[in-house]
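Entry:
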Amino acid sequence: MTISLKVNGKSQQVDTDPSTPLLYVLRNDLGLHGPKFGCGLGQCGACMVHVDGKAAFSCVLPIAAVGDREVTTLEGLLENGKPNKLQQAFIDEEAAQCGYCISGMVMRAQVLLKEKPHPTDEEIRHHMRTNLCRCGTHAAIMRAIKRAAVA
């Protein structure tokens, strides 16, 4: 079945089963490798994308459920081909160790900063609690989010 969707500002068409998770379409059909396969259960956040500006676990979201809503991946956050201020803050704070979770962390943090440009430490911890980092770089991730909030 041919399904139309809008990803990172571009209209796309994919031929796939409607029950296919959005993550697989993004990675396998559209070549967008920002979102990662982590747990496959919507529990770790490695697959996080934005759907109409809200954080969504793409590993558990069937492509048919996306409809006309805008999907944004890590690649879609770039500004003129360069990291946006949050992405740059993650780079500057060396927030990645293995890097597997970072795409999801950035996507989740971007939503927070859009809703609350100057969050407190507690607000950051509360908002980011759905994303896991097994390397333990949570302190660097906190610094990156705070750095982007100040910039």
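The CA atoms of residues 120 and 146 lie 8 Å apart.
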